[in-house]
Amino acid sequence: MAKRGHGEGTVYRHKKSGKWMAQASIGYGADGKLKRITKYFETRKDAQDWLTKVAHEKNIGAFVEPDKITLGDWLDKWLNTYKKARVRKTTWDNYETMIRCHIKPAIGHIPLQKLQAGDLQGLYNQKLKEEKSSSLVHRLSLIINGALKQALKEQLVYRNVNDATELPPLKYKEIQPLTAEQVQKFLEVAEQDRLYAAYLLELGTGLRRGELLALRWQDLDLENGRVFVNQTVARVRDENGPRKTKLEYNPPKTEKSKASVPIPENIVWELVKHQIRQQEEKGFFQGEYQDNGLVFCSENGGQLDPRAFTRRYERLLKKAGIPKTSFHNLRHTFATLLLEAGEEMKTVQELLRHARLNITADIYTTVTEKLKKKASAKINDILFNGKPGRE
């Protein structure tokens, strides 16, 4: 005999299995028909308790219609449906790699509605045990949080369990800038390279690699010694092209990144010489020259691949007898040399175009500690007239 469960459904014994079947009404579908969900229980009490739970969740807006989608499936849908058209290709590629390599192998199989905060915390803790960086853990959390926020909007889940997790403090890797002596050695070797002006401009402005290689002559004001960052280049996946990847140009991520940067006077003159040489190359190749308006390009005007450019830089490092270090460390070298020369942190932040001062301060903690010790030594000399301490 069927029994009404608090006016929200029915409970009755299933003839074949002998189990108690509870059926709850959950609203109306797109076709206007009443939608119901059914579950089986060993006892009538369990069935009625479930109906009561469903009724309560509906009343407080926490009820979510059962769905068998897994976290991995939902992440794929979120990535392709909600993010693909909204983020730049490099960001999308990064998200896809994080999901495929880190999230799905560990917890992608878990049904979305059964996902617990402990599952996510376990993932984050495991990555730290594997000695992955704290920034990677934060990126994983950012992706999962975004996907769960969308799932919450669509009522696939009734809460975002990522809110209950704890993330490690964000730590930046210790920077490895070149010393002033190494910079001189490097430039002595780089001076023989046709892209000498590129390395000089990097050390004199601290541009990001993608910004440097995307510069067009229209982005330079050589008369007033300024460079305007209007675009950046990166190699991204090419889903429909003949090759797996392609070079893609995009505006900088933030308005702060678009700010202009002054060019040191001597580097302006090197850029003028570089422009003259480029015009000579253009005359040599004539109709075969690919005029993209780029400041730094191949001899025939073709685009420079960021990875190939980095390998070129690494060969110059080796020739100069300097240990291998990333091209990005030239940006750190620019900032470090300024700080060590006594420049204010706020000025360096503006030149690097960091969104916030604390980002600059966190990255250059090691440098600022050295400067604090220098300052301490100076005040010691002032207070004690350079007298030595206790014997």
What are the SSEs and their pairings?
Elements (H helix, E strand, L loop, with lengths): L2 E2 L4 E5 L6 E9 L5 E8 L2 H17 L10 H13 L5 H19 L9 H13 L4 H20 L26 H11 L5 H10 L3 H5 L6 E2 L4 E3 L3 E6 L7 E6 L9 E3 L2 H21 L20 H14 L8 H13 L4 H8 L4 H7 L1 H20 L7
Antiparallel strand pairs: 1-2, 2-3, 3-4, 5-6, 6-9, 7-8
Helix pairs in contact: 2-3, 2-5, 4-5, 7-9, 7-11, 11-12, 12-13
How does this structure look, described?
It is built from 14 helices and nine strands. The chain has 391 residues and is an alpha+beta fold. The chain has three domains: 3-60; 71-164, Orthogonal Bundle (DNA polymerase, domain 1); 180-372, hpI Integrase, Chain A. It starts with a strand and ends in a 7-residue tail after the last helix. Mean pLDDT is 89; it is low at 1-7.
What do we call the CATH topology of the largest domain? Answer: hpI Integrase, Chain A
The pLDDT mean sits at 89
Radius of gyration: 30 Å
Number of helices: 14
Question: Major beta sheet, specifics?
Answer: 4 strands, antiparallel
Tell the overall outline.
elongated
Terminal residue distance: 99 Å
> How would you write the strand order of the largest sheet?
1-2-3-4
What class, by secondary structure content? Answer: alpha+beta
**Percent of residues in helices:** 40-55%
Unreliable residue runs: 1-7
Just name the CATH architecture of the largest domain: Orthogonal Bundle
Q: Mind telling me the CATH class of the largest domain?
A: Mainly Alpha
Tally of structural domains = 3
Number of strand elements: 9
Beta content: 5-15%
